[in-house]
Design brief:
homodimer; alpha+beta; globular
């Protein structure tokens, strides 16, 4: 019942967001049974292609909790996360994810992310987007600085 | 030569960011030979797990240009994009990407994203992070609203 409660909240946020000029996606982040933050899709409304519901909720939750780790949190999203959001969920160390609609439902509504999943498993030189290596030796310098830094905050 | 110029800028941003308490990553977005925006990794500094250099640069470039599409732009990044950033690059419709260090260099410096790539190709129920379906029928409601909306901005 509790899980359904938070999922309904995510679905309602998604539906309301359509009325508010956003995309049909909503997300809720919960810790210990309490809502920490919510997010909706504001890609076109905010001119931010990364402002998917899940990424927006993650950023808001981290701001609210003053941390870059959401360990101990669960994310409820009205639709299965796209690859960007799924990776963000891993980076944020969220414990578990519940989704409502799935990626096929999203594709049917005009939000198809299957092309991105397909690109990921291809070797770099077979992807549709050109991806070229440049100055690989000079690019080690930041990493060397990082390795030699004594007071760094690892994560 | 021009490509190397922008890549050096990304590498220098990455190196300086280590001095400024950030991670060793920098990115530059260029349109018609002009820098539109830059970004650095501020995950721990800003308590934002999505604040990788590329995502930060994309958000800043969209803000600067007042658009959610970066068609016509090229991204230079000091290190090969992680899955979150690569997906964001696709969503932002950036034309092409140049990277300096690669993901193996990143892993050697303590930034290993291979576990995320591995998760993506697994069926949902075999992934390390629990991912469960909930209320799939109710979750169609936002999509139905979207499909029936006449003045929506698709993307």
């Amino acid at each position: 019942m509790e899980h359904s409660y938070f999922m309904r909240m995510a679905i309602e946020l998604a539906a309301k967001n359509v009325d508010n000029g956003g995309g049909p996606f909503g997300a809720v982040i919960v810790r210990n049974g309490t809502v920490v933050a919510t997010g909706v899709n504001r890609v076109t409304a905010s001119n931010d292609p990364t402002a998917h519901a899940e990424v927006s909720a993650i950023r808001a939750a981290c701001l609210a909790l003053g941390t870059f780790s959401l360990q101990g949190c669960v994310l409820y999203t009205s639709c299965e996360p796209c690859p960007m959001c799924l990776a963000a969920i891993y980076w944020a160390r969220i414990d578990a994810v519940y989704y409502g609609a799935d990626k096929d439902d999203a594709a049917n509504a005009g939000f198809d992310d299957s092309f991105i999943y397909k690109e990921f498993v291809l070797p770099r030189n077979e992807r549709s987007k050109p991806l070229g290596e440049l100055l690989p030796d000079e690019a080690q310098i930041p990493f060397e600085k990082w390795k030699n830094k004594s007071d760094k905050q690892t994560y």
